[in-house]
Amino acid sequence: MKTRQILLDHGSGGRLSHELITGLMLPAFDNAPLSELHDGARLDIAGMRLAFSTDSYVVDPIFFPGGDIGVLSVNGTVNDLAMCGAAPLFLSAGLIIEEGFCLDDLDRIIASMTSAAKNAGVTIVTGDTKVVPAGTADKIFINTSGIGLIPEGIIISGDRAQPGDKVIISGPIADHGVTILVQRKGMEFESDITSDTTPLNHMVGGMLSSCPDIHVLRDPTRGGVGTSLNEIAERSRVGIKLYEDKIPIRAETAGICELLGLDPLYIANEGKLLAFVRPEHVNRVLSVMKKHHAGKDACLIGEVISDSHAKVIMRTRIGGTRIVDMPAGEQLPRIC
Amino acid sequence: MKTRQILLDHGSGGRLSHELITGLMLPAFDNAPLSELHDGARLDIAGMRLAFSTDSYVVDPIFFPGGDIGVLSVNGTVNDLAMCGAAPLFLSAGLIIEEGFCLDDLDRIIASMTSAAKNAGVTIVTGDTKVVPAGTADKIFINTSGIGLIPEGIIISGDRAQPGDKVIISGPIADHGVTILVQRKGMEFESDITSDTTPLNHMVGGMLSSCPDIHVLRDPTRGGVGTSLNEIAERSRVGIKLYEDKIPIRAETAGICELLGLDPLYIANEGKLLAFVRPEHVNRVLSVMKKHHAGKDACLIGEVISDSHAKVIMRTRIGGTRIVDMPAGEQLPRIC
């Protein structure tokens, strides 16, 4: 009998990841906040509503156009907290470093984390550093966990999408994943694409002030927009209908995806969000988003429909309809 | 010029770790909770006092007598929170898994974490799983972060040791480190030593109920009792005097340390604590500790003295005095 093994796909954010989490972790750890399967847990401590989130960053290469593993590790957890509707406050940083790693690179990464924390308005209050022998880790891995405070009256959850809700995206997709891929492949062609990594909490704060009744927020990182929408559809037991011609993507990003046979719907973003809002709130929310740098290209890309099979479908540019399924395999390991 | 590189010693918990943290991290991240250099940060959120802690576990081997990386990762963060005087409530789990890792081993580790969380009375509410290509990590690394609630009136801090305070240890030292070492070396001799990993929060809860004015709590993990005491002496600007004949150690553990030329004072523990209390509180605290399994061998091992040079000294068995310095080098990488 073949030994059951962990595959790269188990970390893809796609179907196998989902099976690992729902098949192994959820039944074992068995509790309500975890079973929400959100970017972070919503907790009640002595009557106060907190969000708590964790993420490990293993991106390769560690430095790339538009950012590095340090800024990614801060923005990523800041955004996970913001997707719970929380104002991020405090971060932890756990570093696993390979023996022989260049101290100047560590200096650069720590400086990036410091500046990213300042931009986001959070404080890195506790940390841990482990060094492992050369060859037992690749350069550096960073875990950040974070705590945020959820304002009263805010209920953001993956199970709140309702038929009629409009789906907003904050800007063009797939830039982070394509940036990493271009770097890794050492592609020769000219490319100005940079990672979109950025903190979304200030924009989310503005959106929630203007419209407290946002139903779902999600940053489509690993697995991209396609995976995030499938997760939301499943949790809310609704269908989602997308309009391909509305989904923003830079021409250069789209070109590289086409060249490599990659579907940009499944490519990671690190500074984008999906928002599900009632139709009557769309204009208000969009106008707040457009005032922020992180949302200046925000637009409507779809809507929620009734569908007990929880499918995501897309009206294509040429007028057909295709199913946007949960991806089965890993497209890009170590993308974040 | 030689490139500045990360050495194993930077992760030892000893002098180079200390230099990395105080020389690079502290000036960069620059904030009060971090600069306390405690096992966790003490935070004030909307008038509520929380403890927040993080630790990455990279122990090798991942299964060992008395525990595994899963139970270690839960107990370790539970204990870090308890050392802040907090009641641990919620944990996150961030897994970095090597492609090809055996799923049955993952099952075992998740089951260990589940049972450890139950024993400690905490809930694992959020998580993240990354899979990296074979050869870019060694089997599995686990980060846990945790949140705990600090009861009113409790102020535990590394800078509160005062001349006259008595130093208590909760039981025999060096069992965890020696267990790992014996496993790793594949030593042939018979050994019944097992890791001491255990949650300390229930005992700490009892200690604080009986004596809220405990000055310092610290679990002497990486770097052992010798390193922890040096950190406390430095933070509090006091001297610490130890009595070698009072420090509990199992004969077998001591024997292996002697055989290998290791000083048990610098060997990691995973289920022990040091408590600094006023002389008039010693008996009360000891009697509570002895009622708990984790503290049944608790005893006095030293006292705090005035010393502006913040030295830790030890009265040896034969009546001499030696300085117990901060260790310069790494004795055992990947010990936790």
TrEMBL record, chains A, B:
Q: Could you say which residues form the signal peptide?
A: none
Positions of the PurM-like N-terminal domain: 39-150
**One biological process term in Gene Ontology:** protein maturation
Q: Show where the PurM-like C-terminal domain sits.
A: 162-313
CDD domains the UniProt entry points to = HypE
**Per its UniProt entry, which superkingdom is the organism in?**
Bacteria
Gene3D superfamilies in UniProt: PurM-like C-terminal domain (3.90.650.10), PurM-like, N-terminal domain (3.30.1330.10)
InterPro entries, sorted: HypE, PurM-like_C_dom, PurM-like_C_sf, PurM-like_N, PurM-like_N_sf
Q: Which Pfam families does the entry link to?
A: AIRS, AIRS_C
Listed PANTHER family:
CARBAMOYL DEHYDRATASE HYPE, HYDROGENASE ISOENZYMES FORMATION PROTEIN HYPE
Identify its protein family.
Belongs to the HypE family.
What protein is this chain from? Carbamoyl phosphate phosphatase, hydrogenase 3 maturation protein
**Organism the protein comes from:** uncultured Desulfobacterium sp
Organism classification: Bacteria, Pseudomonadati, Thermodesulfobacteriota, Desulfobacteria, Desulfobacterales
